[in-house]
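Appendix B, example 12.
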Amino acid sequence: MKQKIVFATNNAHKLEEVAAMLGDAYEVLSLRAIGCNEDIPETADTFAGNAMLKARYVKEHYGYDCFADDSGLEVDALGGAPGVYSARYSGGGSEENMAKLLQNMAEENERGAQFRTIIALLIGEDSQLFEGIVRGHITRERKGEGGFGYDPIFVPEGYDLTFAELGSEVKNRISHRAKAVEQLVVALKQKN
C-alpha cells in the first residue's frame, strides 16, 4: 500500500510533477484533498522558515507527514530583494511585481539574480530541508508569454531566452524547484 504524504499546495501542476517523480511509492495529497482550506500564514523572514511553517501547520492540524516549499527571486543589485516577498513585492499581481522590479533595476547594469526554492520535509519527528537554485539575470523588458511570476524577465545561465520563452518542459527540467524536488525524491525513496 502506498504511503500518504501531503504536499502543502493546491497547485495542481506542481502536485502532478512531484507525484510523477515519486512514482508508486507515495500517494501525494494536496491541501484540498485533506480538507485544509485555510490560508496557511507565511510570516517567516526566510524561505526555509516559511516552508517549515506550512509543513508544521499540516502536521499539527491534520496529522499527515508533509512537505512544503517556498521560493522567490533574489536580485543581486537589490541586496537579495524581493526574496521572501517575491509574490507580494508590489502589493499587486505578477504584472505589477515585474513592473516594480524593472523600474527598480532601470539604472542598474549589474543584473545578476537567482531563483531559490526551499522544500521542508516532515516525516514523523524528522525534518529535512532541500534547496534548489538557478542563477541567471534580469532582462530590461518582458519577453515571452509562458510561465508565471517573474518568468518573462529572468534568463537562466546557459540560455538566451527567458523562462517564459523556454516553455514549461525546459523550465521544469532546469528550474530551482526541479533541483530541490530531485533531492526530496531521493530522500523519500530512501525513507520508504
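The beta strands are 3-7, 26-29, 66-75, 112-123, 126-138, 154-156. The first strand starts at residue 3 and ends at 7.
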